[in-house]
Design brief:
The protein is an alpha/beta fold and 361 residues long. The chain is built from 13 helices and 11 strands. Helix 6 runs parallel beside helix 10 (262-279), helix 6 (172-187) runs antiparallel to helix 11 and helix 10 packs antiparallel against helix 11 (285-297). The radius of gyration is 20 Å and the shape is globular. Bound molecules: glycine (GLY).
């Protein structure tokens, strides 16, 4: 088991490994009541073991269930969770446990941030993506009809539990999509050890063996922790580096009506970003091609599914991205690997990058 500390005030740990679920008991001992926010499909395999740890902590438990999809991540769900929490008698000194992936963590985390003006929350991540990224850093949010994650708050958890045995029940496509975020960390300047691991044996993580996953997941979580601690409220731009590959990814998700899973879209977005940086001569051809090697090696798509959108449509969507300032902004590597935001790259470089991922104008 490994502990990755997020060095904020107060600090908290991401506990990574087989058996990390045991951490729930010491984290929540002394809390009178705990509301567990989860989804039916996740509760089936994982709720029982969570309830055992909460019983050992001596807490009364209420289970609150939300719907399965991104469309359930809304203010209506938050209102319902808060009303059910009130009906169960949850008070300011009690706690919320989110048990799930990004949708549960974002929605339950936001409800915890606003209920009684903020109650303690622990995230039990059940997806690879949540273990290395979404559950770390205190970002919580829900969607409006006008856009994704438009209402939210920073609310740091008491702790994050990444029990790698929970990944065994993930559908294959969802697990592999999580590897898209692993590819992102492998391609970040701090990701040398992850990169080496993937290049040595790209299929090493396919078996979901906790022993093989543990160093990789802990290394990814450590990068997130370091970046979050350096920019807790996303003000300096440091945290934007965690969005490497995400500018095109968000556009692909929207254009394809979420046919591509987030991690799959990030995978293609990384290949695109590598080619864009290459066309701008910021990185060498070998560094550019490393993007395709890492992404393809992990069994992820390296090009846009045919018929998703034209480059003009994708450019239009990227200009409307909530992180854009009206133009086009990409996080791109420099010759030493450092990631920086680049505004409005020339059309010829964009065309080359689009062609490299199979998108015609
Ligand atoms: N969880 C990644 C970030 O907070 O930016």
């Amino acid at each position: 088991m490994r502990r990755v500390t997020v060095a904020l005030d107060p600090p908290y740990d991401v506990v990574v490994g087989a058996g990390a679920l045991d951490e729930l008991t010491p984290l929540l001992t002394g809390r009178r009541r705990v509301a567990v926010v989860t989804q039916e499909a996740i509760a089936r395999p994982h709720l029982g073991p969570v309830l055992e740890r909460l019983a050992a902590a001596g807490a009364e438990v209420t289970v609150l269930t939300i719907g399965p999809g991104e469309e359930d991540k809304n203010l209506g769900t938050v209102g319902r969770l808060c009303r059910e929490a009130a009906a169960s008698g949850l008070l300011r000194g009690d706690a919320v446990v989110t048990l799930g992936g990004g949708v549960v963590g974002d929605t339950g985390g936001f409800a915890a941030a606003v209920y009684h003006r903020g109650v303690a929350v622990v995230h039990v991540a059940t997806t690879l993506l949540a273990m290395i990224d979404a559950a770390i850093g205190g970002k919580t949010a829900v969607n409006l009809p006008e856009g994704k994650n438009l209402v939210g708050a920073f609310h740091q958890p008491l702790g994050v539990v990444a029990d790698l045995t929970l990944l065994a029940s993930l559908p294959e496509r969802e697990y592999r999509a999580g590897l898209g975020e692993v590819a992102k960390y492998a391609l970040m300047p701090q990701g040398g050890a992850i990169r080496a691991e993937i290049l040595t044996d790209p299929s090493a993580l396919d078996a979901r063996d906790p022993g093989q996953l543990e160093p990789v997941v802990a290394a990814c979580a450590a990068i997130t922790a370091e970046v979050v601690a350096s920019d807790p409220f996303e003000r300096t731009g440091a945290r934007a580096t965690l969005n490497y590959g995400h500018t095109l990814a968000h556009a692909l998700e929207t254009a394809g009506d979420h046919d591509l899973h987030h991690g799959e879209a990030v995978a293609v977005g990384l290949v695109f970003a590598g080619h864009l940086a290459g066309a701008l001569e910021r990185i060498t051809p070998a560094h550019r091609d490393l993007h395709t090697e890492i992404v393809g090696g992990l069994g992820l798509p390296t090009s846009v599914p045919p018929g998703t959108a034209t480059s003009a449509e994708l450019l239009d969507l990227m200009r409307r991205d909530k992180k854009s300032h009206g133009g086009l902004t990409f996080v791109l590597p420099d010759s030493d690997g450092t990631l920086t935001a680049v505004d409005d790259p020339p059309a010829a470089a964009l065309d080359a990058a689009f062609r490299a991922v199979g998108v015609e104008s």
